[in-house]
Amino acid sequence: MRNKLAQKIKLGAALLLMAGTSAFAQTSNQIYTPTPENIKARQEFQDNKFGIFLHWGIYSMTAQGEWYMNTHNINRNEYAKLASGFYPSRFDAAEWVSAIKTSGAKYICITSRHHDSFSMFDTKESDFNIVDATPFKRDILKELAEECQKQGIKLHFYYSHLDWFRDDYPEGNTGHGTGRPKGHGNWASYYKFMNKQLTELLTNYGPVGAIWFDGIWDQPTNFNWQLEEQYALIHKLQPSCLIGNNHHRTPYAGEDFQMFERDLPGENKAGFSAGQGISELPLETCETMNGMWGYRIEDQNYKSPKELIHYLVKAAGKNANLLMNIGPQPAHPINQGENSLIL
């Protein structure tokens, strides 16, 4: 790192890496028995206390955040053209992992596929991916996975349950203006697609620390996501891979850690955690350095190093990890705000 924030976070993380195991009880009536490998992975995750979140994709090229396709009702065919110009020339997996590790972070979570449907990895299930649809032609996740293994840092994959691009994703609360036909949706097809992509991620990229799901809130609460079968598939492929879901609800059976979006456990300042009780699973809170997850050029309202360190302390005080977000620019590794991490 070439700024003072990295040094301060490194110091704070070193002071805060405290042990804290729990019974990891489930809050669902369904039966789920984690394997010994999974229990060990939970304990290690519980003790990490600090990780880095990377929201990065072709939406970074718009400099308007990861929700640009939805908030501006961009037709999916026009949006797809962004891929033809995505060429992150300054990406260097070894430099990224080394810099993040130096900050004191114990793991990295990166968006493998966000709500826009673009896959940041070489998938056979869709041509809309970084290898087939961009001039870059390199598998970002593969390079990160190999470097993480070399440097001894865990790699987690964010994966969206919802999709604003595909016809087979059932119509939800978002993505209405992206040009899909009215009444679109074929759940059986979409569910199969997701599980095939998850199989790729858990087969072709070495040990995966966790799958970080997001998007269930797009459908009614009674929508059957068939999570039990999906979670079982993940645990079968990699028993030690943890599962977390940003559904803003008390954890379901099959989930291995509980996350809180923009809030510390037990608080609801952001409005996402109403009714979400604190389970006995390992805990994680995710937060941004400024106001956005994906890169947005207007958002230069970065939190001060003092604020970020205090948040890390407060999270650790509640026995939770802090997953702090960085929104990389399309060609440059990360935002260049005064208080952002710079590689």
Automatic annotation (TrEMBL):
Enzyme class, first EC level, given as a word? hydrolase
Q: Per UniProt, which keywords does this protein have?
A: Glycosidase, Hydrolase, Signal
Keyword Hydrolase attached? yes
GO MF term list: alpha-L-fucosidase activity
Boundaries of each Glycoside hydrolase family 29 N-terminal domain copy?
26-336
Q: Which residues form the signal peptide?
A: 1-25
A single GO CC term for this protein reads: lysosome
Q: Which residue positions hold the site described May be important for catalysis? A: C286
Top-rank taxon = Bacteria
User: Do you know which PANTHER family this protein is assigned to?
Assistant: ALPHA-L-FUCOSIDASE (PTHR10030), ALPHA-L-FUCOSIDASE-RELATED (PTHR10030:SF37)
In Swiss-Prot or TrEMBL terms, this protein is called alpha-L-fucosidase
Species annotation: Phocaeicola vulgatus dnLKV7
